[in-house]
Design goal:
- The protein is an alpha/beta fold.
- It folds into 3 domains: 115 residues, Gyrase A, domain 2; 129 residues, Four Helix Bundle (Hemerythrin (Met), subunit A) (Up-down Bundle), CATH 1.20.120.430; 163 residues, Rossmann fold (3-Layer(aba) Sandwich), CATH 3.40.50.300.
- The chain has a 6-stranded mixed sheet, covered by helices on one side. A 6-stranded mixed sheet has the order 8-9-7-10-11-12, sandwiched between helices.
- α4 packs antiparallel against α5 and α6 runs antiparallel to α13.
- The radius of gyration is 29 Å and the shape is flat.
- About 2% of the residues have low confidence.
Length: 449
């Protein structure tokens, strides 16, 4: 366990006015501080009520406080959590008094960093803390909880054990060449490496879904000018975000907003209309629209139901697998639309004015978004960019090891490749001591975490 030389304190709840503000303290001087402030510390994990008085004896607030004895605390150190009233002035006065008493203000992510250094969690679990804080959908929350429970760590342990087993077989013949060892079983080494490669591929396949969870599915709204795209955006958001006008070409640039649809987060992107005869300014907007379409996870192709067009505008090729055709302005039709007997695109008729059909469209979007998870499995761990980079490096080393086995099985070269794979896998759980990696990772945390 790494023992920190100083005691840190910071607000663990968001800044601003609220009912309660929580101030977190951690470090070797926590017990003494608690005794000085409150007279005596209660048993660990028992909530007590007391007056918080500053060093001059002046009362600052009526608070609740809880002491956590290390290593059975979030950070693995002695910790104290003080819940005061959520007036920012009170929180500032309490923190100021703690700093006068010897606490240092915590750096971003320092509490979680100490938890990692003290063995309370691995690096993937530490990252999951930030995912949990910023999750914008039920599915993102569920994935963050699985990772905080160590799901990715367990996957990585299995891969690491596979590489260690292969490396042990190889290094035995390097370290003990004169011992009476059985004949080197290269087939077992080859099988072990291939098993690890399959596991790495399985995890890498979840990268795209991980991005969808953390950022939201890119859902691009496309169609001709004045087809009702901006009205649809406003209706799905539940507020007027985009300007709506009867004049075609009102939207010249794309507008992006996040919205929760069922258990999913979608990034709705309203784009400039696609016209067959655009002006110079419209052409620039259309170029941006095509860029957004190329990056889209889902497409909402909006067609004015009062003048339906059989093909996407401007010769645009849309993938039916990720496209929903939205027939807008359905309230203006004299009679309900009849279903297409042989539809190429899933079609939903809506009215942004009355809200008719919006529930059906939401259901269609939820089904499409559910398909992203179905592709990777309901319990799969969704990795991030850092994990993907480490897994890709491990794959390079393992592929090189397989090549050495096939062409010229030299134990020293094989062992070097396997050690490289082991180091790459270790970066995910944090078993490789890389100070720069830790600095970059925990700098993205908020102060009180």
């Amino acid at each position: 366990m790494a023992r920190s030389p100083d005691t840190i304190a910071a607000l663990a709840t968001p800044a601003g006015t609220a009912a309660i503000a929580v101030i977190r303290i951690s470090g070797p001087d926590t017990g003494r501080l608690g005794g000085d402030i409150f007279g005596e510390l209660p048993p660990p994990r028992v909530v007590h009520r007391a007056q918080y008085r500053d060093r001059s004896g002046a009362p600052l607030d009526d608070v609740l406080f809880t002491f956590f004895r290390g290593p059975n605390s979030y950070t693995g150190e002695d910790s104290l959590e003080i819940s005061c009233h959520g007036n920012p002035v009170i929180a500032r006065l309490v923190l100021g008094d703690l700093h006068v008493r010897g606490c240092r203000h915590a750096e971003p992510g320092e509490f979680t960093r100490r938890a990692f250094l003290n063995g309370r969690m691995d690096l993937s679990q530490a990252e999951a803390v930030m995912d949990l804080i910023h999750a914008r959908s039920e599915r993102a929350l569920a994935a963050a909880r699985r990772q905080m429970d160590g799901a990715l760590g367990r996957e990585m342990q299995g891969l690491t054990d596979g590489v260690l087993d292969a490396l042990a077989r190889v290094e035995a013949y390097i370290d003990f060449p004169d011992e009476d060892l059985p004949r080197e079983d290269l087939d077992a080494v080859r099988t072990g490496i291939r098993d690890v490669l399959r596991g790495a591929d399985r995890l890498l396949a979840t990268r795209v879904y991980g991005d969808l969870l953390r950022e939201g599915a890119r859902t691009v709204i496309v169609g001709e000018p004045n087809a009702g795209k901006s009205s649809l955006l406003n209706r799905l958001l539940g507020r007027d975000r985009a300007i709506v006008s009867a004049e075609p070409g009102t939207t010249r640039d794309f507008i992006e907003e996040a919205v929760a649809v069922g258990p999913h987060c979608l990034r709705l992107i309203d784009t400039a209309g696609l016209s067959d005869a655009p002006g110079p300014l419209e052409r620039l907007g259309m170029e941006k629209t095509r860029e957004r379409i190329a990056d889209a996870d889902l497409l909402l192709w909006v067609v004015d139901a009062t003048r339906p067009t059989p093909l996407p505008p401007a010769g645009l090729k849309l993938d039916p697998a990720k496209t929903i055709r939205v027939l807008s302005k359905s309230d203006l039709l004299p009679a309900p639309l009849q279903p297409d007997p042989a539809p190429r695109f899933e079609t939903v008729a809506v009215s942004a004015l009355t809200g008719a059909g919006i529930g059906d469209l939401r259901s269609a979007l939820i089904r499409r978004a559910d398909g992203f998870q179905a592709a990777v499995g309901p319990d799969s761990v969704a990795i991030n960019a850092r994990h993907a980079g480490a897994l890709a490096q491990a794959k390079l080393c393992l592929s090189s090891a397989l090549l050495n086995l096939e062409e010229a099985p030299q134990s020293e070269l094989l062992a070097s490749d396997l050690r490289g794979a082991l180091d790459a896998l270790g970066e995910i759980s944090g078993r490789v001591d890389n100070e720069q990696v830790l600095d970059r990772l925990f700098a993205s945390f908020c102060i009180g975490k």
